[in-house]
Structure to design on (503 residues):
């Protein structure tokens, strides 16, 4: 479970607890009548409003529990090449000629590349079955970097799982197990939930499987700055480490969110939990299944809540009148974006999207997160305190409306292998990928020859084919789909190339 710690004065919480106990004690004392006052108390009781019974959540728990699974994460021990700070004295004794014979510049406060063995790592989290054929939604941070994933159902059946796709920006991941007639959860529209509504958080916190906690929805459309795209449902249902990826359900046992984060003074459940709404989840799952990656639409602005901007200006002694205290203050407009097309400028305030009122940035994020590049939206905004409405076409991060797909090594049109021990000794290097064949593709277009040894791509150390594959996938969907490849020729001469992944 991701944690966001809030360091406040501990006495504040203690005081709140003390006052609550005191209030309960006084109330309890008042319910013990003296015999002389029985008649008057009976009269008061007949006039009092009947006590409201607590909401019954047992049916919701029974319905949703079988759909929530335990996920065990394993990352095996690996040999990794890392940069470490050089020790000039150690370097001198190991190599008194300071790299004079071609062993590389070391010492004098520089860095060295060393191979280290990482320890085996294990962790646990939760997930939610969303289809009878074995698709499970969880958090990206639950499965990111896993070599093995084991899913355990509520009936203790175990399955090996594979990652179908993941999205760091929303912290969601889709995994799959091979099963049939699995207990898939019913999914509700999270836009319909209301603040104050009762909810259950279901997961596997602190190693305690199949745990249910209850609370209410405390707020909607929260942004915390932890992920790239956020519009969290906030709840006071107890959430702890291990709840990540679990279910937030309504009183009908329907899924309304994926638990993702904890906001606490202590790191435990004395605080609030935050769940990713199902409207956002449905879009991410659909995109991963259809395209292999999330098709993220962009308006093309930088900004924040109007109130936060006005408050910051007041702290600087400036008075600002934007014509409203609700909405999204536009601090910057990205060139060739939907916002620029609409004519937005710095200082404008977005107040509606497709007729839906937006009062804070989380509202805007939640709406746009459900859109794809090429979709049209209607923006209503204040320019010099005058309302304007424009319909625009949303674009992707690369500035167009084309489908963005994760590229793999095939796009490079080359074959690779890790360098041999003989090459390491001849070239005095410890890692690298040799280009053993160049066909038609991006590497041929860039002029990279057979025999070239790749050592870094976009300043990331490349030691295995998997390292290169992962980087190509990440960069292919980024704003600038370009690889800067650095390495050496078989002669030892250094070189670099620029590879354009987009057309």
């Amino acid at each position: 479970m991701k944690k966001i710690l809030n360091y406040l004065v501990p006495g504040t919480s203690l005081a709140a607890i003390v006052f609550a106990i005191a209030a309960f004690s006084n109330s309890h004392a008042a319910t013990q009548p003296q015999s002389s006052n029985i008649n008057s108390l009976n009269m008061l009781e007949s006039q009092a409003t009947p006590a409201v019974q607590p909401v019954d959540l047992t049916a919701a728990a029974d319905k949703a529990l079988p759909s929530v699974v335990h996920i065990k994460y394993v990352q095996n021990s690996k040999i990794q090449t890392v940069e470490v700070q050089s020790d000039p004295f150690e370097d001198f004794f190991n190599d008194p000629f300071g790299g004079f014979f071609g062993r590389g510049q070391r010492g004098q406060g520089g860095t060295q590349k060393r191979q280290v063995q990482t320890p085996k790592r294990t962790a646990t989290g939760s997930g939610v079955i969303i289809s009878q054929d074995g698709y499970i939604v969880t958090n990206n941070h639950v499965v990111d970097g896993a070599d093995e994933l084991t899913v355990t159902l509520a009936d203790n059946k175990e399955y090996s799982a594979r990652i179908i796709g993941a999205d760091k920006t929303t912290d969601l991941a889709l995994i799959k197990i091979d099963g049939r007639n699995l207990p898939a959860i019913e999914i509700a529209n999270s836009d319909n939930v209301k603040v104050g509504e009762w909810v259950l958080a279901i997961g596997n916190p602190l190693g305690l499987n199949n745990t249910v906690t209850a609370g209410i929805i405390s707020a909607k459309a929260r942004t915390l700055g932890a992920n790239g795209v956020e519009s969290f449902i906030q709840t006071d249902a107890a959430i702890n480490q291990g709840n990540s990826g679990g279910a937030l359900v309504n009183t009908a046992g329907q899924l309304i969110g994926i638990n993702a984060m904890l906001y606490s003074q202590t790191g435990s459940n004395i605080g609030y939990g935050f769940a990713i709404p199902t409207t956002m989840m449905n879009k991410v799952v659909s995109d991963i299944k259809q395209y292999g990656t999330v098709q993220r639409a962009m308006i093309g602005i930088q900004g924040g809540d109007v109130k936060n901007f006005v408050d910051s200006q007041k702290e600087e002694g400036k008075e600002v009148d934007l014509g409203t205290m609700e909405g999204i203050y536009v601090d910057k407009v990205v060139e060739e974006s939907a916002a620029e097309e609409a004519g937005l400028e710095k200082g404008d305030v977005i107040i509606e999207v497709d007729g839906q009122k937006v009062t804070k940035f989380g509202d805007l994020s939640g709406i746009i997160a459900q859109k794809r590049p090429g979709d049209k939206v209607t923006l209503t905004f204040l320019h010099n305190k005058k309302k304007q409405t424009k319909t625009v076409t949303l674009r992707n991060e690369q500035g167009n409306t084309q489908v963005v797909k994760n590229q793999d090594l095939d796009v490079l049109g080359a074959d690779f292998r890790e360098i041999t021990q003989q090459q390491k000794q001849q070239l005095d290097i410890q890692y690298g990928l040799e280009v053993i064949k160049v066909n038609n593709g991006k590497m041929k277009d860039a002029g990279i020859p057979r025999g070239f040894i790749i050592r870094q791509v976009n300043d990331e150390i490349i030691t295995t084919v998997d390292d290169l594959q992962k980087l190509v996938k990440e960069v292919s969907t980024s704003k600038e789909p370009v690889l800067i490849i650095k390495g050496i020729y078989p002669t030892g001469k250094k070189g670099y190339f620029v590879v354009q992944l987009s057309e």
The mean pLDDT is 84. The longest helix spans residues 10-30. Residues 139 and 172 are 4 Å apart (CA to CA).
